[in-house]
Amino acid sequence: MNKGVKKTSRLAVEIAGIRFKNPVLTASGTFGYGSEYAPYTDLGRLGGIVVKGLSLEPRAGNPGPRTVETPSGMLNAIGLQNVGVESFIKEKMPFLRRLKTNVIANIFGETVEDYKEVARRLDGVAGLTALEINISCPNVKKGGIAFGVVPTEAHRVVSAVKSSVGLPVITKLSPNVTDIRVMVKAVEEAGTDAVSLINTITGMAVDVEKRRALLATKTGGLSGPAIRPIAVRMVWEAAQVATRPIIGIGGIMTAKDALEFIIAGASAVQIGTANFVDPDSAVKAVDGIEEYLKRHRTSVKDLIGSLKA
Amino acid sequence: MNKGVKKTSRLAVEIAGIRFKNPVLTASGTFGYGSEYAPYTDLGRLGGIVVKGLSLEPRAGNPGPRTVETPSGMLNAIGLQNVGVESFIKEKMPFLRRLKTNVIANIFGETVEDYKEVARRLDGVAGLTALEINISCPNVKKGGIAFGVVPTEAHRVVSAVKSSVGLPVITKLSPNVTDIRVMVKAVEEAGTDAVSLINTITGMAVDVEKRRALLATKTGGLSGPAIRPIAVRMVWEAAQVATRPIIGIGGIMTAKDALEFIIAGASAVQIGTANFVDPDSAVKAVDGIEEYLKRHRTSVKDLIGSLKA
Amino acid sequence: MEEKPKKILYNRQASAHYYRMGISWATPTIAPGQFVMVRVTDGLDPLLRRPFGIYNILGPKGKSRGTGIELLYKVVGKGTRILSTRKPGDDIDVIGPLGDGFPYPSGFRKVIMVAGGMGLVPLYLMAKELHGATLLFGARAREETVFIKDFRKFMRNVKVATEDGSYGRKGLVTELLEEEISSGSVIYACGPIGMLKQASAIARRADVKCFVSLERSMACGIGVCLGCAVKSRPHKGSGSGVYRMVCSDGPVFDSADIDWDSFNL
Amino acid sequence: MEEKPKKILYNRQASAHYYRMGISWATPTIAPGQFVMVRVTDGLDPLLRRPFGIYNILGPKGKSRGTGIELLYKVVGKGTRILSTRKPGDDIDVIGPLGDGFPYPSGFRKVIMVAGGMGLVPLYLMAKELHGATLLFGARAREETVFIKDFRKFMRNVKVATEDGSYGRKGLVTELLEEEISSGSVIYACGPIGMLKQASAIARRADVKCFVSLERSMACGIGVCLGCAVKSRPHKGSGSGVYRMVCSDGPVFDSADIDWDSFNL
Ligand SMILES: Cc1cc2nc3c(=O)[nH]c(=O)nc-3n(C[C@H](O)[C@H](O)[C@H](O)COP(=O)(O)OP(=O)(O)OC[C@H]3O[C@@H](n4cnc5c(N)ncnc54)[C@H](O)[C@@H]3O)c2cc1C
Ligand SMILES: Cc1cc2nc3c(=O)[nH]c(=O)nc-3n(C[C@H](O)[C@H](O)[C@H](O)COP(=O)(O)OP(=O)(O)OC[C@H]3O[C@@H](n4cnc5c(N)ncnc54)[C@H](O)[C@@H]3O)c2cc1C
Ligand SMILES: Cc1cc2nc3c(=O)[nH]c(=O)nc-3n(C[C@H](O)[C@H](O)[C@H](O)COP(=O)(O)O)c2cc1C
Ligand SMILES: Cc1cc2nc3c(=O)[nH]c(=O)nc-3n(C[C@H](O)[C@H](O)[C@H](O)COP(=O)(O)O)c2cc1C
Ligand code: FES
Ligand code: FES
């Protein structure tokens, strides 16, 4: 027990050389570009903000319906609609860089070159702390199979990005794989500075009266508390082989949920769907974790991967 | 529209040469050996009963805690505790064979030989309609990796069983794979007469106060409505490549849920966790499906895979 | 963030499936047509908030700010069922006011409001502000017309059509619109997509301006999830593509900007 | 299967976190120590039923069948919180009576009941049947002793220990047991595993028979999910292995049959 831990250092963690004042970030695609939630929560109290996935060019996204609620979760098929990397830098970064929190740009592409180019444009942008590579996207050159489910392809994307930028690189893993450990090893070998997991799990819901899928694209990504047990398991599995820090994601609603991930091996967490339910969830989680750390006289650093055998 | 479908044929389906009077079965491990639920529901109204997984020898199962509730679901790590194939035949079949419903034996082993031997002992047992092979089990000869996640291993198990028995064989697929279609093709090539999916998804939950997993075995299988969107998606994917009938499983609580699977491509469904919540769920689902069929003037047969593009 | 919790003042059944809920809340300025996102339970079922239009502002008459708001809702599923069991005095978690609301009609000869079912809700505050507007209301049957009396209190021109003829004219509200429309009118419409599409076509043919308030299922309500997309006509394509968000770009749109063929009805 | 729905007769707060719920139900024969599985909501949160002991049978005095049952429960989480909001007159979905209950004590010189916290519940019907039994009750503090008065109504020998000394003796109930135990006694115990393990050890040392009622989290309550397993001592191993199901093989076990070291306290 570290009885002497100070309030500030109790919550702080370091990932990929970046200091996070606390381990609670908001997840890509669930927190816009930060400003939208400013009226509802104190952005400066977040450990970090991961912005909506960015591509080289603006993308219009998928036709609607794009979301549907499911038991303790939701499916989304947004189609990675975004303003494009240039508008992001010009229109969104000025607000974001003034916040007292880390700003991480989530990026994606349909070819390795796309990824590389988006990353290059973001490298050196003032106020940006890191890149998070979303490898769940279909690889158009490989018949649309996602980069994130083929270890060699994931390796290619990550090496390409890593070799083109100075910013720390976090690789966000897809859960739609047989063995997450293989993916962790592949992207670590490619030089990623950290991994984050999980992205959404592919799912589908049917309107039985109309006999058609409830999402226009038929399938979409499942998120929310429903997937938390799967996410905790994958983080724990990843922690058995990872040599770099892990950021846990999936169904976190409360401090208790966040602590499950940290104890299972995550150095930090991201909160996604819960923002929709309560825009203040992330800040409440920070408060709850702090209360827990005090009660147990410990620090996040000491808690990481502390699951008993 | 088949305006003339009769009440009986409206609900009936044929799978692997077996006639089911309706498409609603109860899932392995969630309905014991049938007799336990006799006081709470009308067993004769079920399309079929799949009994708890059987192994060659009785198995004691895992230490407790073995179950934990999660958002809209539960984790279980029963460890395939069962009475063994011989006691099943002697002690459980006499009750089961008197029921006016199909009885399917779910089987598993740790080696291909185990599977074969269990299957052989069950072949020809009066009152047994089919075998369901649970391939989610660890293959002890291959370092404990489950048969169900390696297509060639799944193929070996299924061919071995299929070549040893006269009973129709259903193969129950694990969802813990990158591409369910590959598994469907592998087991169809091995001669399975039908596939059923999904088995539980591996998950984990942590007691943050005690910093230990809530299940004694750390990880377990996630079931219940939480996983339904994933299960529906996998059934739909399977239906794109399958040439044999599909039985849909995963989070079905109501007739509406069952219909999602049927419209996505399943010829029948199994109800698992819902039995714990309401022992009469399966019979209520039968009633609800019948009401739907009448209202839409259709039959289960016409509904299978009728999802609009 | 810390804020004074909003409380349920009343939650009264108005008829079989319809409720009025008063919420005590020192409201910010509310524009007619705005909505709120309500968390119906602090459990996980249902998980997401539910959107409801702001029907009325409680407090000083005729003001855009007040001491509370009134919602009107219909029980259609589990979220609204749970809402209907909530008790006066309870805290209620409400985010809003959200969206843009209706533009004030200046320079039009006649204001025609067209509502289908609960589409009445976002029109009430607007109707109170305007004098001499016409309200055309469509419903399936008489039981859905319970709130029309609220409008009759201060509106002279209220016409109703029901599909089964149990109240007002037998037929569709769009048939009433065909009769009422005249050049120089402006239309404010809210209701099912099919009705809005029809109203929009009628307006286009008559070369009349038409504003519609749309409904889509919403996860966030504030423009973040990008879930409530509707397709706008290409000439209005923004930097982020041809999709507009109902929650943050709307819910009110100029009907000429909407790609009505994109809806899979 | 169609059955007359059971209804809530009353649901009264007995003290801060404790409630008594009466359920109207033409009960089958109930043995002391049996329990029921209650569905607290028809939503999905929480998903599973919750187990509760049958505290009392309502109806004709001293019978094993009645016109209803009474539950006593403590609000500890979301299921019991929702249960505490349920209203008299509502239907309630209850499965039971389940499990085996306590064997009748024949040929013993003294019956000692040992209860910790809500462990009182399964002992009440037994206590009513037996005359001259001793009840030893342990709790953390006075507020947890509210139901002890029910027992005092017909029992002379009731001794209480609280951890903070706010009621009765300061200390653990197992210390009372050490004093009361004598050869030829039989013990009926229910409470936290730690307490039962202690009681079992005391009984073994005194060579006294001890029956314990166990609690495990339960998914089905009827022996089907095989989730509520406890390890029995090897010599009692059945065909299905050394695990016994609390719901269907218990909840009452001979303490000598339990492998107390298997619990990860
Ligand atoms: C901007 C906006 C304003 C609204 N204002 C009102 C209002 O003032 N009064 C009112 O009664 N209703 C209003 N609605 C509709 C209301 O949000 C839905 O009726 C409610 O969310 C249904 O929740 P539920 O859990 O009861 O139903 P569910 O169980 O979720 O669904 C039941 C049925 O309702 C449909 N449904 C679910 N959510 C929506 C939705 N967001 N929009 C349309 N249909 C839906 C489902 O497809 C299903 O058929 C509004 C919707 C929007 C988008
Ligand atoms: C055979 C049996 C008889 C019981 N009889 C009574 C009774 O008469 N009165 C009474 O108040 N309680 C009784 N319990 C305990 C009661 O079932 C739990 O308190 C209840 O299930 C908690 O539900 P919850 O949703 O409120 O809590 P949850 O939110 O599920 O959990 C809150 C806390 O309670 C613990 N808990 C959850 N479920 C159980 C469980 N099944 N057993 C023990 N701890 C649990 C959790 O670990 C957690 O710490 C009995 C339990 C069993 C197994
Ligand atoms: C509406 C929505 C949009 C999302 N968009 C992105 C995205 O652009 N890039 C990305 O990497 N993940 C995206 N995600 C995935 C989340 O960042 C997160 O990994 C996932 O939702 C699981 O976390 P949760 O259960 O807390 O929501 C999105 C999720 C949702 C619900
Ligand atoms: C407690 C429990 C025990 C199970 N045991 C078995 C088993 O022995 N064999 C098997 O193939 N599946 C077993 N399953 C998996 C179910 O048959 C089913 O595939 C899974 O639970 C998903 O369906 P559901 O969501 O309706 O429960 C078990 C599931 C549960 C919850
Ligand atoms: S509901 Fe999220 S963007 Fe509109
Ligand atoms: S709770 Fe299912 S076997 Fe006991």
Offer a quick outline of the entry.
Chain A has helices at residues 7-11, 85-97, 112-122, 151-164, 180-189, 228-241, 255-264, 274-277, 281-295, 300-303, and strands spanning 13-15, 18-20, 24-26, 48-50, 67-70, 73-76, 102-107, 130-134, 169-172, 194-197, 201-204, 206-207, 212-213, 219-223, 246-249, 268-271. In chain A, the strands form four sheets. In chain A, strands 3-4-7-8-9-10-15-16 form an eight-stranded parallel beta barrel, surrounded by six helices. A four-stranded antiparallel beta sheet of chain A has the order 5-6-14-11, with no helix packed on it. Chain A has a two-stranded antiparallel ribbon with strand order 1-2. Mean pLDDT of chain A is 94; it is low at 1-5.
Q: If you had to describe this structure to a student in words, what would you say it looks like?
A:
The complex is a heterotetramer, with two copies of chain A (309 residues) and two copies of chain C (265 residues). Chain A has ten helices and 16 strands. With 309 residues, chain A is an alpha/beta fold. Chain A has one domain: TIM Barrel (Alpha-Beta Barrel). Chain A has an eight-stranded parallel barrel with strand order 3-4-7-8-9-10-15-16, surrounded by six helices. A four-stranded antiparallel sheet of chain A has the order 5-6-14-11, with no helix packed on it. A two-stranded antiparallel sheet of chain A has the order 1-2. In chain A, strand 5 (67-70) and strand 6 (73-76) form a beta hairpin. In chain A, helix 4 runs parallel beside helix 5, helix 5 (180-189) crosses helix 6 (228-241) and helix 6 (228-241) packs parallel to helix 7. The longest helix of chain A has 15 residues, at 281-295. The radius of gyration of chain A is 18 Å and the shape is globular. The two termini of chain A are 18 Å apart. Residues 1-5 of chain A have low confidence and may be disordered. Chain C is α/β, with parallel strands linked by helices and 265 residues long. Chain C has two domains: 2-98, Beta Barrel (Elongation Factor Tu (Ef-tu), domain 3), CATH 2.40.30; 110-215 and 251-260, Nucleotide-binding domain of ferredoxin-NADP reductase (FNR) module (Rossmann fold, 3-Layer(aba) Sandwich). Helices cover 15% and strands 32% of the residues of chain C. Chain C is built from five helices and 16 strands. Chain C has helices at residues 78-85, 124-129, 148-152, 173-180, 193-205, and strands at residues 6-15, 18-24, 35-39, 50-53, 56-58, 68-74, 91-98, 110-116, 134-139, 157-162, 169-170, 185-190, 209-213, 229-231, 243-245, 252-254. In chain C, the strands form three sheets. Chain C has a seven-stranded antiparallel sheet. A seven-stranded mixed sheet of chain C has the order 11-10-9-8-12-13-16. In chain C, strands 14-15 form a two-stranded antiparallel ribbon. In chain C, strand 1 and strand 2 form a beta hairpin. The longest helix of chain C has 13 residues, at 193-205. Chain C is globular and about 50 Å long. At the A-B interface, strand 11, strand 13, helix 6 and helix 7 of A face strand 11, strand 13, helix 6 and helix 7 of B. One FE2/S2 (inorganic) cluster (FES) binds at residues 218-221, 223-228, 245-247 of chain D. One FE2/S2 (inorganic) cluster (FES) is lined by residues 218-221, 223-228, 245-247 of chain C.
